[in-house]
Amino acid sequence: MDTNNPAVSFCLEGMEAEAKGKFKDARSLFEQAWSVCQDDYDACMAAHFLARHQDNPEATFDWNQEALNRANAVRDDRVLSFYASLYLNLGHSYETLGALAEARRHYQMAADRLGAVPEGPYKDMLQNGIARGRKRTDSAEEEQEERHPTIKLSNHDCAD
Prior knowledge:
Order of helices and strands: HHHHHHH
Distance between the termini: 69 Å
Radius of gyration: 19 Å
Largest sheet: none
Low-confidence stretches: 148-160
Helix content: 55-70%
Number of domains: 2
Number of strands: 0
């Protein structure tokens, strides 16, 4: 990452603020990063961080989707290692909004992209997040099926 890039610099400062528990400062720094984006790569990063500092699940979803859209618009390999995180976050947004099938689909896409993430604590964190998301959404679907079982009718159960 180019630390001379203003968007990158603001994002790094925002991450430091987050680590110190200064979430209002972090949000402001990520908003500043967004305001100085020079390309889709910058916008992908800024949107990714902005998503974490929204006041409601719908806004979080919108920023997560924006981050993914911007990553898809980057025409080189700089974002390949971002996809696992982007899909994980979008999966969590879908889960929060109650769209469990879409959540599971995005958790699977996140798992499929883990190969591009270097080994280490960050990859371990992503793997853990994916596993937890899958478990939650699988459990939720099982609970939903238990509450509303599918009724199977044979031909002779129906009146002609």
